[in-house]
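chain below, 219 aa
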Amino acid sequence: MGKRIITQNNLLMVRYILLLFLSFSYIGSQAQVKIGAQLSPTLSFNRLDDDDALEEFGNSGVGGRLIAGAIVDYMFQENYYLSSGIFFIPKRVGIESATDGRDEVSRLHYIQLPATAKLFTNEIALDVRLYFQAGFALDIKILEDNLSDDPQFVSEFSPVDASLLLGTGAEYQLGYNTILFGGFSYRRGLGNVVRSTDADVGDLVIKNDLFSLDMGIKF
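prediction:
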């Protein structure tokens, strides 16, 4: 059977995240702030460094995931915004032994808090403008779920991760207070998600990457 780990600290963190979401809702009443919701069908894959491992490993596949969350865009100058929010981020970790073909797949769930800048163009068509986004994100793990019947490689994953976040897309002004948007984003993992491995594996460095199609609405 696979293993699933949820700690009391993680549950407490979720309560804090919900409180932060309510704070965002209050902030959204200010004229310079837009809040909204976003859904992102996502491809999750990982990079692997096994230089210090006791055997050779490779990546094992790509997984489809769905990112969901709330966004907050704060305008500090015309066409320039600070963008944050709260996102539920599922990630897939897949590794395979090059020696005997054994593989191991784990599902990691995070609450992500991004801190990014958004640059908007002037209108390129009626009520349409482009945006470019760049920044970083902090990922707090709330669940790890090993999907393998007999996990043999990774014994525990790190409780936090960090990502470089890049994105681009377009916004359409649907009404006075309503904006639809769509685009693409790339989250490049910066930290090693492996906290410890089994004794006969050695050290593994695994970093997650996510490529997403973003869709959402702002008010």
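The CA atoms of residues 80 and 119 lie 5 Å apart. The first helix runs from residue 8 to 27.
thats it, cya
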